[in-house]
Write a structure and sequence with these properties.
Radius of gyration: 23 Å
Organism: Microscilla marina ATCC 23134
Largest sheet: none
Protein name: Multiple ligand-binding protein 1, putative
Low-confidence stretches: none
């Protein structure tokens, strides 16, 4: 009887570990890092939808965002948070020249939420 309970316990623990392992692997695969181009495309789509960007604005925002994403990647590779902040500051300064005042205000509100 004791051998049976021990076997059942081992089987239960082994099953639990397998489930946890499968969940961990599938979670890791779902959260693959996006490339700078993919992040830019996603961001521009969201901004176009939420801010109502014009065709001219879309091209400019796409270029500014791609520049920011690439600078951010380089800075993160070197673990340079100062460079990340500087890239973000430059990106926001460029957005101010591209977006209308109301669009930029709405953009900042969505960034805070």
């Amino acid at each position: 009887m004791k051998a049976t309970i021990a076997n059942i316990t081992r089987l239960g623990v082994s099953s639990l570990l397998m489930v946890l392992l499968v969940n961990t692997v599938s979670y890791a695969q779902r959260n693959k890092q996006l490339t700078a181009e993919q992040r830019t495309k996603k961001a521009v789509q969201l901004m176009t939808k939420s801010l109502g960007l014009s065709v001219a604005q879309i091209a400019k925002v796409e270029e500014a965002n791609l520049t920011f994403q690439r600078a951010r990647e380089v800075a993160k590779t070197h673990q340079d948070q100062t460079a990340v902040r500087a890239a973000r500051k430059a990106y926001h300064a460029e957005l101010k020249t591209i977006l209308t005042r109301n669009q930029y205000k709405k953009f900042r509100q969505t960034q805070r939420n």
